[in-house]
Amino acid sequence: MKAKSHPWLVVGFLVLVALSRWPGLLPPSFSVVYALVFCAGVYFPAAMAWWLPLGTLVVTDAALNFYYQARGYDVWTWSVLKYQLVNYAGYAVILGLGRRLKPQSKFVTLLSGGVLGALLFYLITNTASWLLNPFQNPEYTKTLSGWLIALVKGTNGWPQTWEFFRNTLLSGGLFTGLFVGAMKLSGAESPAEKEAGVRAKESEEEPQAEEAGA
């Protein structure tokens, strides 16, 4: 089932992303966004799969920047914006992963894809935090130990990054499972998609039958 045949998918996507990014609503790194970006890649048509989630994230990031600026944080510096660009690279990786799968894929396959996407996002963004160090954290030395600190411990005065890692994987798995499960239960495959899936299966079986006959 593609978004173009179900407009509620688009509306629901926009609402969920906007609400889930409200400051303090969810624990740090426990986000709906990983799963929704991944599922956008699976269920949205090619062009929409890219511009809708990334465009929504740009708009909500700008709103969040103004929110934190009003509270005294210097969030419009080039170092911070450059780190945010890396976040979009991480989201693009999740999207690309989703594009490699289909709505007809097994539940476990889609669930695993959502978890893998969240894991890759964590590795990409925390490695970027170590390399770019936008807030000049002294712990992030340009050594192997500095990189491991960025991945596991983090900076003093903040929760340890392994907690963010836990929240990233849990939320990626939970929300992907909920979203994919809802799609499966609501009849994710339209008749045309079911027919296409049957044809694809038959085309895969034909060479095997020819080989057996040979």
Description:
It is built from 8 helices and no strands. Helix 5 (107-132) packs across helix 6 (144-153), helix 5 runs antiparallel to helix 7 (161-185) and helix 6 (144-153) packs across helix 7 (161-185). The chain has one domain: Arp2/3 complex 21 kDa subunit ARPC3 (Orthogonal Bundle). By secondary structure, the protein is mainly alpha-helical. It is 72% helix and 0% strand. The chain has helices at residues 7-20, 33-43, 46-69, 78-99, 107-132, 144-153, 161-185, 191-213.
Helix fraction bin = over 70%
**N-to-C series of helices and strands:** HHHHHHHH
| Individual helix count | 8
Structural class: mainly alpha
- The CATH class, by name, is Mainly Alpha
Q: Whole-number radius of gyration?
A: 20 Å
CATH A-level architecture: Orthogonal Bundle
The largest sheet, given as strand count, sense and whether it forms a barrel, is: none
CATH topology: Arp2/3 complex 21 kDa subunit ARPC3
Q: What is the molecular shape?
A: globular
Structurally, how many domains make up the residues? 1
Portion of residues in beta strands equals under 5%
Query: Unreliable segments (pLDDT under 50, ≥5 consecutive)?
Result: 190-200
